[in-house]
Write a structure and sequence with these properties.
This protein is mainly α. It contains 22 helices and no strands.
Length: 447
């Protein structure tokens, strides 16, 4: 049976893929993951807009404050294990049971620790806000379901993600319908938090059942202390990096909720929802051209640099072409989609959308780092950028609210992807890519 990817590929591509089973599986796996993103993006945006309009800025802000707060503590559950576990499952399939069993146990222990810290944190942060504490602790239950992600890791290692995608999207669509029913029936805010928890429960348990059916089975799973030590030794740099990224991406909403109010969080949330729609675009483009750039690296350094520069040019100017109209018509976009109650989000969107330049640029730059094998040198970038982001939020949120958080995001993204690169000598050369793209010059040719 042909997958959705091979059916809709151009004929000349199908001829190249035909008769190469592993390549067909890889393309099909990518297409299912892409399908997952498109479905969630499209339906999520439609239903998300409806939920935002129904709840209003304050309640919608509280819901997003809860989601962002839980996301910060999820780093203690993920532990930076995904890439390490997938790598080991591929390289040592005979040890699948002990790898999956050990990783799952580590994540469940991490979930218990994270939930304890979350309870302490929200009690300190919102001592007089019973609803906020209830929302956060309810959403915090999803931390325990992240321990089931190890089942998804196995499907990823086997290039069989379509089964998990089927499950996740079926649940997502069903619960999107539930949200519509809740809106039509006038349900309270707490009901929407329960839907988020239900999503995690059903997908988590479903993933485990799929693993038991397609994988090595429940009896093969076992915990090994020695294996746990190995996983920790390999994953701790990724844990620190993911922690820095989580702070980088989520701390603004948490700080807004604490330093301003939930309404400001709601205003900021709808602005970022529109701005971040475009984040999948550079990932698709970069993934598509990455193999050809890798091949150029093997053949000729000059050709390799020029191909990479062309990619950077495309990323920077495509992001600018998106940011300009979004920024100019930001208030119109917000009012049309979310209604006038969110009109203040227009100016926030007009600021935040310029972060796209560094998001697009960063997608290409991260591939350069991988090819040049400098992944061990970028941890300081993530940590430094997250510290800058927190510092700017402390300075700007109090006088400017959501607008200050947007400014902090753009500046910290910009510094993290340009100025901080020049501090590390091994990464400094890559700074020319950005200068070339912005100035439309070819500084490489001068070397």
């Amino acid at each position: 049976m042909r997958g959705i990817s091979t059916v809709y590929l151009p004929e000349f591509v199908r001829r190249r893929v035909s008769g190469r089973p592993m390549l067909e599986r890889i393309i099909e796996n990518i297409s299912w993951l892409f399908f997952d993103k498109v479905v969630r993006l499209g339906m999520g945006l439609i239903v998300g807009i409806w939920v935002a309009r129904y709840l209003g800025p304050e309640q919608y802000g509280l819901l997003n404050f809860g989601i962002a707060t839980v996301a910060l503590f999820a780093i203690f559950v993920k532990l930076g294990l995904q890439s390490i576990v997938v790598r080991d499952l591929v390289n040592n399939p005979e040890e699948t049971g002990v790898t999956i069993g050990t990783a799952a146990a580590m994540q469940m222990v991490g979930a218990a620790f994270a939930y304890l810290l979350l309870t302490i944190a929200i009690t300190y942060m919102r001592p007089d806000d019973q609803l906020a504490r209830t929302i956060v602790l309810l959403l915090g239950l999803t931390l325990f379901l992240k321990g089931f992600d190890t089942a998804k890791f196995w499907f990823e290692s086997q290039v069989r993600s379509k089964y998990v995608v089927w499950l996740a999207n079926a649940v997502f669509l069903a619960l999107s319908a539930v949200k519509v029913v809740l809106i039509l029936s006038g349900a309270p805010l707490l009901a929407f938090a329960w839907v988020t928890v239900a999503d995690a429960i059903i997908v988590g348990i479903g993933s485990i059942l799929l693993f038991f059916h397609f994988g090595p089975g429940r009896k093969a799973l076992r915990f090994s202390l020695a294996r746990a030590r190995e996983l920790v030794a390999d994953s701790w740099p990724l844990l620190l990096s993911s922690a820095a990224i989580a702070i980088y991406m989520k701390v603004d909403m948490v700080m807004l909720g604490q330093m301003a109010d939930d309404k400001e969080v709601g205003i900021y949330a709808v602005a970022t929802k529109i701005s971040e729609i475009w984040h999948f675009v550079p990932l698709i483009i970069v993934a598509s051209v990455f193999p050809s750039i890798m091949n150029a690296k093997k053949k000729d350094e000059t050709s390799y640099l020029r191909r990479f520069q062309t990619l950077f040019d495309l990323m920077v100017w495509l992001s600018i072409l998106i940011a300009i109209p979004v920024s100019l018509f930001s208030t119109f976009i917000i009012n049309q989609l979310f209604s006038n109650q969110y009109s203040e989000a227009g100016i926030v969107l007009s600021i935040h959308t310029w972060a796209l330049i560094f998001v697009f640029y960063g997608a290409a730059w991260s591939k350069w780092v991988i090819i040049e094998k400098y992944t061990d040198k970028i941890l300081y970038l993530h940590i430094s950028a997250s510290i800058i982001n927190v510092g700017l939020n402390l300075i700007l949120i109090d006088p400017l609210g959501a607008k200050g958080a947007a400014i902090a995001t753009v500046i910290s993204y910009g510094i993290g992807h340009t100025l901080l690169i020049y501090i590390q000598s091994d990464l400094r050369r890559s700074g020319l890519f950005f200068l070339n793209a912005v100035t439309l010059r070819r500084l490489w040719d001068r070397e």
